[in-house]
Amino acid sequence: MSSRRWAGGLYVIGVLVMSLRAGEPEKLWWWLGALIFVVWISSPVLGGLWLWRLLSRQGAKVLYLLLLAIIAIAGFALQWHTMFIGPSDAQNALILVFVPLYQWVAVGLSFGLSKLLAWVSARE
């Protein structure tokens, strides 16, 4: 199994643990919402790992994985802080909705930058 699959799996497990700590897993209805939450929160990182395959140059792949790791760690830390460390506020839940959106934008920009690097290095 590749290290990217391990990283993706660990990220999903981390999001699942965060969900279990914040939620009410003893209630059946909670699981439906939690599964949607885990998919939404994990999607930028898993999608980003899938996009990695489309890069051709080694330097572009390394840059992209570095940027993706930063995106994943920053997003997870922000969501963890919102759920467990920061003040309890209903508006904080918006972070859980919008952080993945911002992560998707960052993944797209990182992928574009990496493709540009691959194109420039191929022309030299």
Itemize the secondary structure elements and their pairings.
Layout: H1 3-22, H2 28-51, H3 58-85, H4 93-123
Helix pairs in contact: 1-2, 1-3, 2-3, 2-4, 3-4
Keywords:
124 residues, 83% helix
Structural class: mainly alpha
Q: What letter string, H or E per element, gives the SSE order?
A: HHHH
For the largest beta-sheet, the strand count, sense and barrel status come to: none
Number of helices: 4
What oligomeric assembly is this protein in?
Answer: single chain
In which range does the helix fraction lie?
over 70%
Poorly predicted sequence stretches spanning 5 or more consecutive residues: none
**What's the shape?**
elongated
Distance between the termini: 34 Å
Arithmetic mean of pLDDT: 87
Query: What portion of residues belong to β-strands?
Result: under 5%
Write down how many β-strands occur, each being a DSSP E stretch of 2 or more residues. Answer: 0
Number of domains: 1
**Radius of gyration over C-alpha positions, nearest whole angstrom:** 16 Å
